[in-house]
């Protein structure tokens, strides 16, 4: 009976790795952007690409999590 209950529950761990790496990239990109802005340096497009890649990975993780 315990196996049947576990099979009927949705797997919430799917896509977790993608979401974690996505959040890490968003944080790194945001911190780099803030440090460049605060230091008076030019904001490099690479920082925006880090944020965009993090958002993409978060979306992929959310899609994998909700897929039945």
Q: Compute the CA-based radius of gyration.
A: 18 Å
Spans of at least 5 consecutive residues with low confidence: none
Q: Would you tell me the overall average pLDDT?
A: 85
Order of helices and strands: HHH
Q: Biggest sheet: strands, sense, closure?
A: none
**Tally of alpha and pi helices:** 3
Q: Which range does the strand content fall in?
A: under 5%
| Helicity level | over 70%
Distance between the termini: 22 Å
**Total count of strands:** 0
By helix and strand content, what is the structural category?
mainly alpha
The general outline is elongated
What does this structure look like?
The protein contains three helices and no strands. The protein starts with a helix and ends with a helix. It has helices at residues 2-8, 16-38, 45-66.
Which features does this protein show?
single chain; 3 helices; 68 residues; mainly alpha
Q: Secondary-structure blueprint of this entry?
A:
Elements: H1 2-8, H2 16-38, H3 45-66
Helix pairs in contact: 2-3
Quick rundown:
The chain is an all-alpha fold and 68 residues long.
